[in-house]
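Structural prep section.
Before we set up the soaks we want a predicted structure of the protein with zinc ion in place, mainly to decide which crystallisation condition to try first. Input record follows.
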Amino acid sequence: MFSERFDQLVQALRILPSVGPKSAQRMALHLIMKNKQGALALSEALSDAADHIHECSICHSLTENEVCDICLSQDRDDTLLCVVESPADVMAIEQSGSFRGKYHVLGGHLSPLDGIGPEEVGIPALVQRLAEGQVAEVILATNATVEGQATAHYLVEATRHLNLKMTRIAQGVPQGGELEYVDSHTLSQAVHNRMQMK
Ligand code: ZN
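Run finished without errors. Recording the tokens verbatim:
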């Protein structure tokens, strides 16, 4: 509209979740007219983050190194593994201070209608990790949504052949609830009051 570069910026902003054309335009105007300093800082932070942050090769959470600090930590219990859908859930559980084991991030949930099967959420890799025998209890902390529940049940079935205790956080996490939006106290109670599934 004003310039080709402005249109490009609006288009670029639209990759953000729930940002439509109007919001993208408003953001672009704000950045260029009201906060050019902030715009430059944002651009630098974005490019820096995109260049340096990637998945941990063990748990698939985020890190700047090959392996993340949680996986490397000697102070955390290797026999307890918490399975979550996204790095945001790791952050939420860490902020609740309720868990001292290790994590495995699936990167989503099973959703057959969208073509997302076990392979797409790394379930074979998780089963392989569990088969190594270090983990004694798996805490299934996928979201309390239909897909999250289905993913938890699938994992119980997929690991039937392994001698593992499987528990599910449930208490206090509202049905349909996504972990990252649950407050720390509730989440801490949910991890504490987990229920045995197998
Ligand atoms: Zn890790």
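Observations: Residues 131 and 161 are 9 Å apart (CA to CA).
Flagged for discussion at group meeting.
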